Amino acid sequence: MRLTIVLIVSLFSGLILAQEGDNASGTQSCDACEVSEKLKAMETRLNDTETRLMDADNRLKDTDNRLKDTENQILEMKNKESMITTALIILTMAFAFVHANNPPCRTRSNNNAYNSFSRKHILRDEFDYRNDNEWEIYIRKHGLTDRPLQSFIVSGNDERVTDICKGAGQPLESSRYRANLCISHRKCLVYHVKLDKNNRVTNVDHAIQFVVLACDVVENQCLPVHYEKYTNQLPNRSAAPCQP
Ligand SMILES: *[C@@H]1O[C@H](CO)[C@@H](O)[C@H](O)[C@H]1NC(C)=O
Ligand SMILES: *[C@@H]1O[C@H](CO)[C@@H](O)[C@H](O)[C@H]1NC(C)=O
Ligand SMILES: *[C@@H]1O[C@H](CO)[C@@H](O)[C@H](O)[C@H]1NC(C)=O
Fold it and tell me: Which of 12, 21, 160, 229 could form an SS bridge with 155, CB 3.0 to 4.6 Å?
């Protein structure tokens, strides 16, 4: 573009010079001056336009680069997203796998699991169960403080409870629950004790209800390892009873 301008300018200058040569009078020369100035103005404007065009070009390039950046970022995000999705899918599958493969009496638990369950949920001593104060004493004596809602099965002996994991219980109907849960065939007397922050008993009630427990293998026996709140869960009648 610049070359064209230079060419045009030199051509006109040549003409003017020729004219000047032909006629060296003042008026003619002034006309030439005017033309030459106009040409210069045109050149300047052309230069300006060129500069602005170049600016615009640069800005376009900038925009293009930024677009590319954005595109890259989007790609990166998509990659991250797909990574997270993959991780989630793997986790879900792993969970489903564990869930589906851990029916009652399959998972091994440590030796302490049954003892801990038994201490927390099978009532050991006889006392006046209607007396809040005696409950407080019992809870302190057995180191069961700092659990705001506690449930105790009144069994007479541990076997009536452990039997739930040995044929006297049934897997639950819905797979919404932990797969190793069993519900007792028979109802039991269960006390529910509420404590406040200072381990003062604020409420005691009792119910004759079904008992839901998690049954795991402890030292080659199937035993309860966890007490699950009874919320009207139903047994799966078509499944075999919970047993080793
Ligand atoms: C030169 O200019 C004068 C006066 O302006 C004019 O009379 C004359 O004809 C011109 N000569 C030529 C060769 O153009
Ligand atoms: C046009 O631009 C060029 C370089 O960009 C410069 O050298 C030249 O003097 C400019 N011309 C005018 C008339 O501004
Ligand atoms: C009940 O148990 C049977 C036998 O294990 C099983 O095939 C079925 O899917 C279970 N039903 C429900 C609702 O969990």
Answer: 160
Taking the centre of ligand 2 as the mean of its atom positions, its distance from the CA of residue 47, in whole angstroms, is 6
Among all bound ligands, the one having the nearest atom to the CA of 23 is 1
Sequence-ordered list of residues with C-beta below 8 angstroms from that of 141, at least 6 positions apart, any chain: 125
Q: Please tell me what DSSP assigns to residue 184.
A: E
Closest to 50 measured CA to CA, from 99, 116, 121, 1: 1
Task: Please list every protein residue whose CB sits less than 6 Å from any atom of ligand 3.
Answer: 173, 175, 236, 238-239
| Atom 5 (ligand 3) nearest CA | 239
Q: How far is the CA of 160 from the centre of ligand 3 (A)?
A: 25
Q: For the domain bounded by 113-228, which CATH number is listed?
A: 3.10.130.10
Residue 131 amino acid letter: N
Tens digit of each residue's pLDDT, the chain (244 residues): 665 655 555 555 555 555 555 555 555 567 778 888 888 998 999 999 999 999 999 999 999 899 999 899 999 988 888 888 877 766 666 655 554 457 899 888 898 999 999 999 999 999 999 999 999 999 999 999 999 999 999 977 789 999 999 999 999 998 777 889 999 999 999 999 999 999 999 999 999 999 999 999 999 999 999 999 999 999 999 999 999 9
Q: Look up the pTM and report it.
A: 0.56
CA end-to-end span of the chain: 93
Q: Write the CA distances from 197 to 143, 151, 192, 194, integer angstroms.
A: 15, 17, 17, 10
Pocket residue to mutate for ligand 1, from 19, 22, 25, most atoms within 8 A of Cβ: 25
